């Protein structure tokens, strides 16, 4: 028999979704632990900072080193719980970053928000995407 879990997950989509990150963080508490690649963190930081300031929440960013090892997951959990005292984990990216974010959140017993890379790149490089593509919307998945 497989293990399974039921969570309250929300799928949010729209052009202003990244600008509303602070509002979603505020639903869980006052501090987010944000992880991602260096380029994704740099791309989202201005909007994240504005949104968090508007909703009176804080965030701490940590670069994911690219290794999905138990050691990296434990490092992130320790930072999120002990150093940051986070109320939510925010993973900015796909694949390994999303998986690490979900693992960190599960071990830390915190909610997780995953923001796909397509959401980050479309927000900051809109002229480079075809107008008629399905990528004219930003999506965020959050388990709160």
UniProtKB/TrEMBL annotation:
EC assignment: 1.1.1.6
Protein origin, superkingdom: Bacteria
Domain Alcohol dehydrogenase iron-type/glycerol dehydrogenase GldA: 11-116
This protein's pathway: Polyol metabolism; glycerol fermentation; glycerone phosphate from glycerol (oxidative route): step 1/2
GO cellular component terms attached to this protein's record: cytosol
GO molecular function terms attached to this record: glycerol dehydrogenase (NAD+) activity; metal ion binding
Catalytically driven reaction(s): glycerol + NAD(+) = dihydroxyacetone + NADH + H(+)
Keywords: Metal-binding, NAD, Oxidoreductase
A Pfam match: Fe-ADH
UniProt-recorded name of the protein: Glycerol dehydrogenase
The species this protein was found in: Propionispora hippei DSM 15287
């Amino acid at each position: 028999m497989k293990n399974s879990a039921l969570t309250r997950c929300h799928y949010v989509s729209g052009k202003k979704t990244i600008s509303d990150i602070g509002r979603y963080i505020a639903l869980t508490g006052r501090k987010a632990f944000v992880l991602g690649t260096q380029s994704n963190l740099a791309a989202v930081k201005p909007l994240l900072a504005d949104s968090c300031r508007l909703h009176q929440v804080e965030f701490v960013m940590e670069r994911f080193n690219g290794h999905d090892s138990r050691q990296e997951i434990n490092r992130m959990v320790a930072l999120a719980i002990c150093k940051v005292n986070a109320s939510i984990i925010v993973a900015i990216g796909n694949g390994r970053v999303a998986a690490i974010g979900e693992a960190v959140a599960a071990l830390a017993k915190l909610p997780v928000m995953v923001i796909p890379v397509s959401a980050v790149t479309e927000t900051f490089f809109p002229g480079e995407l075809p107008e008629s593509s399905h990528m004219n919307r930003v999506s965020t998945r959050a388990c709160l």
